[in-house]
């Protein structure tokens, strides 16, 4: 029998853990020749998530848990589950049931057809605001253009299947800011995508706020491209040329017409504008330097407080 490892990060998901476990268990009871293990990764939860994991794992050998010492982030939680998975294939999905477990047989089917990675291409339900739909679509388009990976629209989902050979490659990566959505495309393995409509959260509220979304967006952009640094250099040359030509034209015009060079307001606005551009460029450079700083320290991506295996 082939074994499927299912990695589920959990941050304050006490109400969803029993639900998703039961649904996965029901699904595998209908699939022949497959057994499964679920690796829950408690990413610094403040509710009763850990107590529930300990309770349900006592009577279920197919449930494993990893408890972090604090919140290290969703991507590091998925990476931890991958590091300890032992299946012939690994499926990562969220604990809030927005990733429907009923899609698992389809993922396995595509894997059996010979694909190393099976992505899921997410479609938002009607309840999701148009702002969320449009910003997500624009972000992945922008990321595809500016980076070295080709993320399909809606492909920005951590609901995917990876063959054990792919998991071994990711396991040996030690990036401080890991971006699995991009890595799964960057590695170049044989991929296929299947569509699904995201469901509503079963219980609880999402802790994925705007600040975390912005940080995740910058991580994705800077993890796979240095084009923003070139963009900063191009902006510097362009604005310098515009300033030189514009000011030179203004001086010649003032000399020919005999008018004085005046306008302190426009001067102040120009200084503020170029100061803002300089801060943007410094900010871009600072992000890359910060990533280098974190990488060279070689601190672990996560710290495990406890596990049951």
TrEMBL record:
Would the keyword Glycosyltransferase be found if you checked this record's keyword annotation? yes
Sequence intervals crossing the membrane: 229-252, 264-289
Q: Main localisation, per the record?
A: membrane
Any idea of its EC number? 2.4.-.-
Q: How does it sit in the membrane?
A: Multi-pass membrane protein
Q: Which InterPro entries match?
A: Glyco_trans_2-like, Glycosyltransferase_2, Nucleotide-diphossugar_trans
Please list the residue ranges annotated as the Glycosyltransferase 2-like domain.
Answer: 5-164
Protein name in the entry: Glycosyltransferase family 2 protein
Which keywords accompany this UniProt record? Glycosyltransferase, Membrane, Transferase, Transmembrane, Transmembrane helix
User: Where, per UniProt, does this protein localize?
Assistant: Membrane
List the GO molecular function terms: glycosyltransferase activity
